[in-house]
Design the sequence.
């Protein structure tokens, strides 16, 4: 029996060593990802480590991510701005990110929540976009709880070594973490969280239109409405003014939406109920100009510049909220 | 339960540990219970189908052995028909009724659709064929009927090869359930290494390539000729690594438990002809069709026309075995045609190569033959992978059109994944060549412990970090 016992110990020893190495590698990747100082991860790291402290914060999904240029907002209004939008996110994730942001940064003077047709749709269980970005920050209670509600398997991301980096992501996002440890960072293509897309109109919409000749409808489920309301309440309970904006969308796309009136009526209802301004750019001059878009949902860099300038000028007309002491301090430090 | 799941990572060590801990007489019942649990992780109720098949063939085997003459044959036919009926209902019902209704509509009869929403039980074709091979072998008196129901049920349900083979023969597997398999460090570590290699093939190669293939074959008309070509070559490697990876994991897992399963693949893309390819690809299925379909039809000891018919019938059934779709039938027939054309053109090829001064066994001719065979196989894979015959025709006619080197990525396969995909293919090919030319196991065994373990960890973490762990089933599960 002696030989097998020794052999069993060797096998167990092998797997234990492997487990320890996996834990070490997991920690190393997380540490590296938090050190990335450029591109999307760099912007997110700034926000999560309390190095933003902007006066105007923009929240939303990919449309916000591509539409709001904080540099223009700052230049026009004199207020520092940061684009906190997360590509591919729904309102539930946006709220969790905003809460985590507020935990580490000075209270902003204004939160701009960009709306779209998906604003009332919660993130489907297996569709948390680019999950690797959240894994190093699962110690953030709000973020962890929000993601756990969307996908009950999120506990594995946190507690099983490497699971969050390799199982949920096929794009080898962990590589950025190891590269950052070696001092290699991605090319900087973001400006205070804003990521302009310097592209011209592509054929996506034509294919989409051909696939949906009878149009498409978007749900207004009560749980989705509740999440948007919670986001507004979160801001209001922190005495942060919030502004709802429906940024430009290519007009033919909106014409395809069969229940557009219902969705917009709900946006207005919510805005009225909470006394929040709602700026609707869905009928604006930009929406009929294809040259300003690269697809039906997203403005290109030129469109984003025009829209951001327009929005920034309108922001000047908003009643001035008293800047918090921390925000003023941050502004002074930035300058 | 998928091999590439967290459940299996817990299930397998637990079952292996229990197997070595319990007395010998308890091992087979334990393996049967584990196999039931393994299968029920998919759709629990479908285990009843397996029980029905097992019940029929267990009883049939015993009575076939006892009886003789016409009764013996009748029992065999009854067993085959009833086992195949299960396969027909779950796999081919919609295909055949749809075809029949289509023909009736052409004749002017208006028949209502009777399509039923049936989910195909995982691995149905595999365990059905394994069950069939048992009754046929008993009928042929090459195997004694198994009187122990637990042993027979474990033969059909043995979890490492339950859902995607290798399709075992009773002579190879049943007696192993009666033998003792003591704890053997070398055998266990050898099995674990084989499993690791299977995981590399499945997770790093097959599932990475599948990201590209799935995008392109979902809508081929959205992609240029270069992308169609890349997707087709990628699919050739995807299906090979997916299926042979599964076989490696199955063989490795069985080896850990003390069982020897038959080899299923022998570097098929090194074949110099289609005939050789079918001796190296899915060997357990090829030999099954050879022994139970092709030989009973007369094999090649018949007049030429009948031989041609035998080949085409065997390949058509083989195609249909893979799926209830015309693309699979066309794929099977295409391979039958390749085989016949290869035999018919052998003399011509020899003359052409001879005129060029190329030695029959020389490396240049071998290289040309390997590449030609691979090309022909890829044409077949287009038909196999396409959603329908129209898509297959589109891909085949657009391979060489509109190549654009600057546009090779797809929605789910970013350009940065390409080096990883190509590097994994290189590792695969180098390792396969090395395994053929060198005695890797002996070489590795001579390396001191620390560098050896470092090498093992490097392979394990290579699989973990570069693998794709989406919940993708193995391609052959659907068959």
Sequence:
């Amino acid at each position: 029996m002696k030989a097998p016992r020794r052999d069993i110990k060797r096998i167990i020893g092998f797997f234990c060593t492997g487990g320890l190495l996996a834990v070490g590698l997991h920690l190393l990747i997380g540490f590296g990802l938090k050190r990335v100082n450029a591109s999307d991860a760099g912007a997110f790291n700034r926000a999560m480590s309390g190095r933003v402290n902007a006066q105007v914060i923009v929240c939303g999904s990919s449309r916000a991510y591509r539409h709001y240029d904080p540099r223009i907002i700052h230049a026009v209004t004199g207020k520092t701005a940061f684009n906190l939008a997360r590509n591919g996110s729904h309102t539930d994730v946006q709220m969790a990110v905003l809460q985590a942001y507020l935990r580490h940064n000075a209270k902003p003077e204004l939160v701009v929540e960009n709306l779209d047709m998906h604003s009332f749709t919660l993130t489907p269980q297996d569709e948390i976009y680019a999950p690797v970005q959240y894994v190093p920050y699962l110690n953030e209670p709000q973020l962890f709880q929000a993601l756990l509600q969307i996908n009950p398997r999120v506990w594995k991301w946190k507690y099983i070594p490497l699971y969050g980096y390799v199982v949920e992501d096929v794009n080898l996002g962990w590589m950025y973490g190891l590269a950052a440890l070696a001092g290699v960072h991605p090319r900087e293509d973001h400006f205070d969280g804003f990521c302009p897309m310097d592209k011209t109109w592509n054929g996506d919409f034509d294919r989409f239109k051909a696939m949906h000749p009878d149009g498409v409808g978007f749900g207004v489920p009560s749980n989705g409405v509740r999440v948007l309301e919670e986001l507004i309440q979160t801001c209001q309970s922190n005495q942060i003014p919030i502004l709802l904006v429906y940024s430009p969308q290519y007009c033919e796309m909106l014409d395809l939406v069969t229940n557009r009136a219902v969705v917009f009526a709900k946006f207005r209802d919510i805005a009225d109920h909470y006394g929040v301004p709602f700026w609707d750019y869905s009928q604006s001059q930009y929406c009929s100009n294809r040259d300003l878009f690269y697809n039906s949902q997203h403005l290109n860099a030129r469109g984003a510049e025009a829209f951001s300038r327009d929005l920034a000028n309108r922001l000047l007309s908003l009643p001035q909220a008293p800047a918090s002491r921390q925000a003023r301090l941050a502004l002074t430090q930035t300058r | 339960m998928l091999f590439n799941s967290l459940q299996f990572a817990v299930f397998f060590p637990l079952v292996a540990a229990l197997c070595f801990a319990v007395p010998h007489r308890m091992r087979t019942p334990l393996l049967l219970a584990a196999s039931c649990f393994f299968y029920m992780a998919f759709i629990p109720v479908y285990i009843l189908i397996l029980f029905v098949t097992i019940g029929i063939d267990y009883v049939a085997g015993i009575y076939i052995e006892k009886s003789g003459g016409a009764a013996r044959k009748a029992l065999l036919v009854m067993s085959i028909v009833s086992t195949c009926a299960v396969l027909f209902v779950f796999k081919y019902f919609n295909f055949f009724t749809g075809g029949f209704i289509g023909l009736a509509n052409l004749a002017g009869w208006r028949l209502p659709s009777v399509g039923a929403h049936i989910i195909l039980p995982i691995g149905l074709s595999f365990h059905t064929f394994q069950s069939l091979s048992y009754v046929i072998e008993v009928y042929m008196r090459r195997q004694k009927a198994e009187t122990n129901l637990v042993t027979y049920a474990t033969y059909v349900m043995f979890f490492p090869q339950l859902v995607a083979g290798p399709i075992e023969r009773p002579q190879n597997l049943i007696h192993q359930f009666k033998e003792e398999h003591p704890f053997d460090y070398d055998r266990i570590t050898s099995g674990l290494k084989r499993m690791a290699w299977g995981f590399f093939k499945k997770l790093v190669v097959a599932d990475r390539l599948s990201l590209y293939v799935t995008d392109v074959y979902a809508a081929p008309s959205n992609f240029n000729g270069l992308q169609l070509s890349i997707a087709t070559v990628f699919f050739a490697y995807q299906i090979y690594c997916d299926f042979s990876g599964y076989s490696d994991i199955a063989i490795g897992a069985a080896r850990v438990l003390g069982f020897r399963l038959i080899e299923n693949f022998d570097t098929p893309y090194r074949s110099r002809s289609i005939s050789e390819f079918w001796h190296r690809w899915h060997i357990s299925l090829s030999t099954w069709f050879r022994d139970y379909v092709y030989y009973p039809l007369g094999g090649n000891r018949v007049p030429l026309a009948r031989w041609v018919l035998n080949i085409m019938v065997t390949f058509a059934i083989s195609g249909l075995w893979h799926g209830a779709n015309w693309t699979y039938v066309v794929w099977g027939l295409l391979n039958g045609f390749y085989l016949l054309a290869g035999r018919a053109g052998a003399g011509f090829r020899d003359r052409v190569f001879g005129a060029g001064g190329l030695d029959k066994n020389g490396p240049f001719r071998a290289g040309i033959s390997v590449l030609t065979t691979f090309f022909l196989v890829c044409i077949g894979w287009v038909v196999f992978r396409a959603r329908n015959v129209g898509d297959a025709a589109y891909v085949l006619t657009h391979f060489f059109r509109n190549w654009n080197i600057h546009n090779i990525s797809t929605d789910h396969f970013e350009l940065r994944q390409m080096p990883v995909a190509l590097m994994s293919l290189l590792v695969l090919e180098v390792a396969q060549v090395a395994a053929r030319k060198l005695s890797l196991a002996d070489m590795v065994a001579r390396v001191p412990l620390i560098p050896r373990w470092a090498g093992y960890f490097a392979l394990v973490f290579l699989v973990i970090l570069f693998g794709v762990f989406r919940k993708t089933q193995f391609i052959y599960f659907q068959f």
Summary: Residues 36 and 42 of chain A are 5 Å apart (CA to CA). The longest strand of chain A covers residues 110-115. Chain A has a mean pLDDT of 89.
